[in-house]
């Protein structure tokens, strides 16, 4: 990558030290990204071309969804043109609706939807599935996002250290 930085620097008409540092920094970032491809590509290939098939919602979870009857009060909150997010039928007082954990409601056509999907058709809140591998993958992803958040916070703390010394940062 240093050859790239040298070539790019030679093409630069300004040739200033700032341009050299910027080009070298860009080259370093590109080199790091390329080095991580070795770990990312096998995961993508294992994952059927990178597209993970989302399993349906757990049968037990779907069976336990509460059923509510629409009242005029609920309909007033939803608006006069309220319709089912799945089948687009207009909702009416007296309709029996299933309530998801995210508090969105849907008509009885929610069950066929959840036989193929594991999420709310409105906000994509994910319900638990019966697929152990998928649930394990979700937990790993959640852990990775948590670690990423912690690392970002540490980066901010280190970069805002007022004493400008690294002697007190032990590894």
Automatic annotation (TrEMBL):
Lineage, highest ranks first: Eukaryota, Viridiplantae, Streptophyta, Embryophyta, Tracheophyta
Protein name listed in UniProt: RING-type E3 ubiquitin transferase
Pfam families for the chain: zf-RING_2
Extract the InterPro entries matched here: Znf_RING, Znf_RING/FYVE/PHD
What superkingdom does the record give?
A: Eukaryota
Which BP terms from GO are recorded?
Answer: protein ubiquitination
Keyword vocabulary terms for this entry = Metal-binding, Transferase, Ubl conjugation pathway, Zinc, Zinc-finger
> Which EC class, in a word?
transferase
Q: What is its EC number?
A: 2.3.2.27
What GO cellular-component annotations does this UniProt entry give? cytoplasm
* The RING-type domain, residue ranges: 84-124
Q: Which SUPFAM superfamilies match?
A: RING/U-box
Give TM segment ranges: none
State the Gene3D superfamilies in the record: Zinc/RING finger domain, C3HC4 (zinc finger)
Which reaction is recorded as catalysed by this protein? S-ubiquitinyl-[E2 ubiquitin-conjugating enzyme]-L-cysteine + [acceptor protein]-L-lysine = [E2 ubiquitin-conjugating enzyme]-L-cysteine + N(6)-ubiquitinyl-[acceptor protein]-L-lysine
Instruction: Cite the GO molecular-function annotations of the record.
Output: ubiquitin protein ligase activity; zinc ion binding
